[in-house]
Amino acid sequence: MHDKPDEPVGRLIEEFLTARATRKPSPHTLAAYRRDLATVASLVAADGGTTPLPLDQLPVSALSPRVMRAAFARFATPRAAASVHRAWSTWNSFFTFLVAEGVVPGNPMPAVGRPRTPLPQPKPLRGEDTPEELLAAVAREDGRQRDPWPERDLAVLALALCAGLRLSELLALRVASVAGRPGERRVDVAGKGGRPRTVPIEAGVDRVLADYLDSRRRRFGSRSVRPDSPLLVDRRGEPLRRGGLQYLVESCYRRAGIGDRVPRGARLHALRHTFATRLAEDGASAAEIMRLLGHASLASSQTYIEVTAGQQRAAVHANRTNRAVAALVDGPAGGGG
Known about the structure:
Elements: H1 9-21, H2 27-46, H3 65-76, H4 81-100, H5 130-139, H6 150-163, H7 167-172, E1 178-179, E2 186-190, E3 196-200, H8 203-220, H9 242-256, H10 269-281, H11 286-293, H12 298-318, H13 320-330
InterPro entries: CB, DNA_brk_join_enz, Integrase-like_cat_sf, Integrase_catalytic, Integrase_recombinase_N, Integrase_SAM-like_N, Tyrosine_recombinase_XerCD
Keywords: DNA integration, DNA recombination, DNA-binding
Protein name: Site-specific recombinase XerD
């Protein structure tokens, strides 16, 4: 137990982030934790003044329910509900950590209101045949590229479109992550929040991955495909990083000429959403989608089914034959009979 109730908030934030780092969150997630904690703490430290107290001088005892409510009210004014909800969750985790460490006697966050945020809507690629067009375009060598590697690019797209992997999950894959006997091949995924899952892959995807690894052997030698090696590498044989993977997918969109069919703000994630949406279209249940995508809750998976049902209803409504039937029933005056 700590016996210093007025430890500085700045130091405690660093302790919390160090503890969180052992869970292997993405650098993006860790940066968001730091930003949310520092921004709200700075509002507390300012306390209406123009020169805020440095966080390494702000005592943790200052973080009372009343003070936190006021700070979150100021934090929420210029921000979207989703941003406020995320910051509330970060601070709730921070105080849970402090209570467990014996630094504070209780968590004030239940006394701080938080907005309800609707579940994000799926953003798949637009156009019924867009995924097939994308794969076909990327499979062809493009003479305009300095060092074309269609086998690697196709492997990335196949894993995102046919296994629904997140960006961080793609980067975490090892060569040995693709496993199983012929006919029972799978990808072992280190999922979000430390939740591992297994995604079955069909023979076509397995062949794409095998072709990619063969091409990698030719480029960099057999040592480059040891079981513990990163599965996805750049053109120098180095592990792909976040920015490199994002750029790779963007370049695939450009080569296929489908940039206008990619939803704003969902560049790589649109591939995962396309996977989930097609699962729903083909009759998968919310529970099946949840397991395959590694969702933490069934509600996230249910959105794909609801959106798909809505799209099906809209398609039926737009059908010209249905409109013709409606015209016959309604009659010229708009009434039946």
